[in-house]
Amino acid sequence: MLTIGDISEKVPVVSLTTKSAEVNLLFEVNPDLEGILVVEDDKPAGLVMKSQFYRKISTKYGFDLFMGRPINLVMDTNPLIVEFFDPITLVSSKAMARSQKNLYDYVVVIQNERLHGIVSIKNLLIKLAEIQVNQAMYTNPLSGLPGNVLIEEKMLEYIQNGTKPFSLLYLDLDHFKEYNDTYGFKKGDLLIKEVSNLLSKYVLLNNLEDSFVGHIGGDDFVAILPNHNFEPTCQAIMHEFRNRIKEYYDDNDWKNKYVFTKDRNGNFGNIPLVTLSIAVVTNEHHTYKSIDEISKIASDVKKQCKLYDDSCYIHFENKDSNLIEQTNCSCT
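and the corresponding structure tokens:
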């Protein structure tokens, strides 16, 4: 994941005792320079943007008042300061929330409480646009959720971190093909969107940083929680899914609890209503080394979910070198 520190750059720095006349000379010698940082003990103390500097000294008494005096009388003592590893999207939101007067000021980047550099608003917006274009390229057009490329990037991020807790939820709809064949692809698309909305509601809107939802394709989804407290989320998703699925059937099919249609083998029969399976894999007791390792386990657990007649989730736990299934199945 690209962070604000990855696009930061260096600019001239001065001390608190530097005279405004010296800052003026720096701007004159470097006409493309938009701003200068004021530092104290390698920490940002203030920001001097060229436009605001000249606005102050160009007042009636500004030149005589400030030119021979320290820059701390002119600098902005409260610039936007962000951490090196802050996401670019988060920094962009903070930058755009500033007052009109400071909207185009540098964003100051620190690392371990010390100055690292700055990011100009021009470069920030260019990089943000690149990110949005890339996301659009790899987003599922039906659900609007990240597709396989971005899913793999997120999973790899957690795997490479090693110590960061996560719960991966692998979800899919059981009997969805038969539903699609019976009710048509438009209703099927609406049901897919329903699931994506539920995941966004209970995963992305829970205010947990680094939560993630992706759409593998068809009726398969992935969600990642940055903790091991997956049960409330699974239960909430299943509960609301059970309440909403009724809207996708006519009264007769809902009453019967089945649909008379062809199965995957082309034989007519009573096909159960659509249910939701959630396979859960966490790194609470095991460090995973590859995406393939996690994917295989999640796929195997999902097959076990499908043995149940109702929506359910199963948590798979690895406590030692032998894979052990935790008896943790919850059905609606």
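(Above: one complete record from the training split.) The mean pLDDT is 90.
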